[in-house]
Amino acid sequence: MSYIKPLPAIDNWNRGFWAAAQDERLAAPHCLDCGHIFFPPGACCPRCLCQRLNWKTLSGRGAVESWTVFHQLYYKGFASELPYNVAVIKLEEGISLMSNIVGISNDRIESGMAVEVVFEKATDDITIPKFRPIGPVRPA
Fold first, then answer.
1. pLDDT for the residue numbered 72
2. Which of 9, 95, 128, 131 could form a disulfide with 39 if both were Cys (CB 3.0 to 4.6 A apart)?
């Protein structure tokens, strides 16, 4: 069966993120002048405007900052997963990413819940970072 959910558009700015994900690493742009780690990727550091950047591997750990649960079907590829969550994860390094929380029912997700990255191989070329709870979780 082929992957039927929407796939990311890979471009010059985000290519390093998706290449790291393919290797099951989470990475973000890192400024070589001021040391700032930022996301989303861009042509320069949003703090000092330096264009000397590299990709820094991140811890992959963070906490749920916010989330919502979708009950309405917007893309056919998600039909079998309704309802599904979309969450904002605040990583230990200070940046936030949008993703899904897996391995827990939607009604048990909590603000501040500790999570770690896991990777879902979508296609031969795309691996998608998702997050799962770590540590104590509220009982069902």
1. 97
2. 95
